[in-house]
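Q: Predict the bound structure with zinc ion.
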Amino acid sequence: MEKSSVLVAPSLLAADFLDLGNEVEMVNRSEADWFHLDVMDGRFVPNISFGLPVIAHIKKKARKPCDVHLMIEEPEKYAAEFKKAGADILTVHYEACIHLHRNIQQIKGLGMKAGVALNPHTPVSLLENVIRDIDVVLVMSVNPGFGGQTFIEQTYHKLQQLRQLITNSNAHALIEVDGGVGPENAGQLVKAGANVLVAGSAVFSSSDPEQAIREIKSAVQ
Ligand code: DX5
Ligand code: ZN
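A: Predicted complex:
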């Protein structure tokens, strides 16, 4: 995967669902790199979003990789279905996986890139023994469940620790940051080690979403 410049992944959680086709086309046209798709089950997180059929529809129009962020319990039960729906990268939460190593192997065995997400309270050191198996580490910079929350400042320190772990382990994982990200903190996040920036409200609540994406990408160059 591309490592040299920052990737931007707009989160469709903040999109206009009555106008989803046009929202997908906007991302296709824009400088964004991935579609970030947030799946919530009302159990792992206190909110329910969307699931397989919506992702399958998005996939039909998407001309960029679909980065599916599962905020669900027992993600191993659904990995094959998400592959079928169109996931290119499938991310499970560390806190939702009893057999994380097995889950990572399952995702890769299905032909997807494997991501592991960490809640704000989960230390990066817990990934020490799987870091070389992971394609993406998703660092939550808000508590998962809702868009539009305030960025947690401790994330910068966590990103530095994760960058160190990846370097020391000679691993290749990309670092993705999710929650409260926008043009104002993009530069500092990349400086702290981020490779992929997820942005929901900063993109879709903007009067000019394509420009917002451009700003997030250029804030770091
Ligand atoms: C939150 C989701 C995020 C969310 C980010 O649980 O994982 O992807 O959409 O939204 P913003 O960018 O508005 O914080
Ligand atoms: Zn997300």
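A: The chain has a mean pLDDT of 97.
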